[in-house]
């Protein structure tokens, strides 16, 4: 599936009109491992169908929001590559406090599941120059979120 603010589509109308690439099997496996570890039980039934990729340059931010364009309550698995960011993990009721600020560094993985699936969250700050160029990313931050859209 392809996400364009704020809906999923089968074709990338806003890019090239083409069908999006199949979800890579290795990435789905990684998602299952993440969910299994976070939940402490096997997650063989976790079948993400969409990976949303966000690139953040030094000034980029993401405001507080809920991930609620999916029809499925399945967990969202977030992977971070490149620059470290300040990640704000909030509550399910409001955009504001209480929230918890954590740093997400390259290689960190975060699972939004269960009661936190619909928690507000955002990225108030990127720490430029903190990434390891060995990732292949010379600058900035990439975030991938694996999602089960529940749309087919
Ligand atoms: O970049 C992040 O860590 C969060 C991304 C996010 O919240 C989203 O793509 O919905
Ligand atoms: Fe989000």
TrEMBL record:
Residues at which Fe cation binds? 65, 67, 121
SUPFAM superfamilies, per database record: Clavaminate synthase-like
Cofactor(s) for this UniProt protein: Fe(2+)
Query: What InterPro entries is this protein classified in?
Result: Alkb, AlkB-like, AlkB-like_sf, Oxoglu/Fe-dep_dioxygenase_dom
Instruction: Keyword check for Ubl conjugation, yes or no.
Output: no
Q: Which UniProt keywords apply?
A: Dioxygenase, Iron, Metal-binding, Methyltransferase, Oxidoreductase, Transferase
Q: How is the cofactor bound?
A: Binds 1 Fe(2+) ion per subunit.
What molecular function terms (GO) are annotated for this protein? broad specificity oxidative DNA demethylase activity; ferrous iron binding; methyltransferase activity; oxidative RNA demethylase activity
Superkingdom to which the source organism belongs:
Bacteria
GO cellular component terms, alphabetically, are: cytoplasm
Q: Where is the Fe2OG dioxygenase domain?
A: 47-150
Q: Its GO biological process terms? A: methylation; oxidative RNA demethylation
One Pfam family recorded for the sequence: 2OG-FeII_Oxy_2
Protein name, please?
Alkylated DNA repair protein (DNA oxidative demethylase)
Native organism is Nonomuraea wenchangensis
């Amino acid at each position: 599936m392809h996400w364009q603010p704020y809906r999923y589509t089968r074709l990338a109308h806003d890019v090239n009109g083409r069908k999006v690439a199949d979800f890579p099997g290795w990435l789905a496996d990684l998602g299952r491992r993440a969910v299994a570890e976070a939940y402490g039980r096997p997650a063989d039934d976790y079948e993400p169908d969409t990976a949303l990729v966000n690139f953040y340059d030094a000034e980029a931010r993401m405001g507080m929001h809920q991930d609620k364009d999916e029809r499925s309550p399945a967990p969202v698995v977030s992977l971070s590559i490149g620059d470290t960011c300040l990640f704000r993990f909030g509550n399910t009721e409001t955009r504001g406090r209480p929230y918890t600020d954590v740093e997400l560094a390259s290689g960190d993985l975060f699972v939004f599941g269960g009661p936190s699936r619909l928690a507000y969250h955002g990225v108030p700050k990127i720490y430029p120059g903190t990434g390891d160029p060995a990732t292949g990313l010379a600058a900035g931050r990439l975030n991938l979120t694996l999602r089960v859209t529940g749309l087919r």
